[in-house]
Amino acid sequence: MTALLRAERLEAFYGASQILHGIDLSVARGEQVALLGRNGMGKTTLLRALMGLVPTCRGQRLLYGDDIAGIPPDAIARRGVALVPEGRGVFGALSVVENLTMAARPGRDGRATWTLPRIFELFPRLAERRGHGGHQLSGGEQQMLTIGRALMTNPDLLLIDEATEGLAPLVAQEIWRTLGIIRGEGVATLVVDKDFRSLSAIADRMVLLAKGVVVFDGAPAKLAAQPELLERHLGV
Ligand SMILES: Nc1ncnc2c1ncn2[C@@H]1O[C@H](COP(=O)(O)OP(=O)(O)OP(=O)(O)O)[C@@H](O)[C@H]1O
């Protein structure tokens, strides 16, 4: 079956610096894939390249088998991919409801699974804060809102950068719980985080990056059985 997303020999550059050196990666429909690696290894660059946000790339990026080279980010979004960027980016002057409704649109096939009530069911905390401005939210609430906004576009694939970075443990747990629900709805995810244990518990597959190269791609249990890889590339 055609992968939802596939990168083949993907290279990415910032100016003269080459950041990705021939990445092969695929995400199947509904699959939850974790992307791990130490700081500066290219995880964010890979998500951005897949979203069409890195102007200079080589190799192939295929979405449902179609080459998306040269396709701008908004068109990639309309084809079913949503990015939850590191550092969030909610609109501070707009309320929770406004942040969510401005993102609303049907999915690639006209599907509208994710509506305001569905997002509030997923994140009861956001329902309580529905009239609050984005700037009044805690870091955890902002992350929930950013994920909620991405879901309102009814994507087939969510790219989530630093899913729980800087969040209190209980809030992080809440994010992991919702990622399980999102998966249950058949939305594929490619999730970057440093929490190896939580990622191992939810991911179908783990991909480990080091210096812009994939050094492991396989089941969580297979990675857990390689302590030398974990030590060298994650420090766990
Ligand atoms: N806009 C940019 N211009 C030039 N170099 C950049 C730019 N953004 C990132 N880099 C460099 O690219 C490399 C990979 O960065 P990237 O952010 O993709 O790594 P990462 O694995 O996501 O790390 P982190 O966990 O720190 O976010 C780093 O050496 C970084 O300094």
From TrEMBL:
Question: Record's Pfam families?
Answer: ABC_tran (PF00005)
Q: Which GO terms describe its molecular function?
A: ATP binding; ATP hydrolysis activity; branched-chain amino acid transmembrane transporter activity
Q: Which GO terms describe its biological process?
A: L-amino acid transport
Query: Keyword annotations for this protein?
Result: Amino-acid transport, ATP-binding, Nucleotide-binding, Transport
Q: Does Mitochondrion show up as a keyword for this record? A: no
- Identify the CDD domains for this entry: ABC_TM1139_LivF_branched
Looking up InterPro entries in the UniProt record yields:
AAA+_ATPase, ABC_transporter-like_ATP-bd, ABC_transporter-like_CS, BCAA_Transport_ATP-bd_LivF, P-loop_NTPase
Function comment = Involved in beta-(1-->2)glucan export. Transmembrane domains (TMD) form a pore in the inner membrane and the ATP-binding domain (NBD) is responsible for energy generation.
What's the protein here called? ABC transporter related
